[in-house]
Design brief:
By secondary structure, the protein is mainly beta. Helices cover about 10% and strands about 40% of the residues. It has a 4-stranded mixed sheet, covered by helices on one side. It is elongated and about 45 Å long.
């Protein structure tokens, strides 16, 4: 039986950004921000590697990144993620952390 847990939020130390992905929020603590609760050993800016599922063809993710003028570091490339084999594209946040969109959408229309 799978645990009833989904991604809610993650804290990464960078220069003051917050990302929202549907109902999930990723809080990024910048200089001068002192939240009540923090990790014992905070992550340094640029040290994170995060993967987010893209619900749809990876081509749509690439179009989105291009429209937002975000340079693509690598991809599309086949990778193995939480749901098995998928296609990923890699890019970076302003501090250099590696971000990944992975799509499990197949060209034949199967979204399994």
């Amino acid at each position: 039986m799978p645990l009833p847990v989904t991604f809610d939020h993650c804290v990464v130390h960078v220069s003051g950004w917050a990302y929202r992905f549907g109902a999930a929020q990723l809080n990024l603590h910048g200089p001068g921000f002192h939240p009540a609760e923090v990790a014992r050993l905070p992550v340094e800016p640029g040290n994170s590697d995060l993967c987010f599922r893209w619900n749809g063809p990876i081509a749509d993710a690439i179009t989105h990144l291009e429209r937002c003028r975000v340079p693509i570091d690598a991809g599309p490339i086949e990778r193995f993620g939480a749901k098995g084999s998928g296609t990923s594209v890699y890019f970076r946040d302003p501090d250099g952390s590696l971000l990944e969109f992975i799509s499990y959408h197949r060209e034949d229309g199967d979204r399994s």
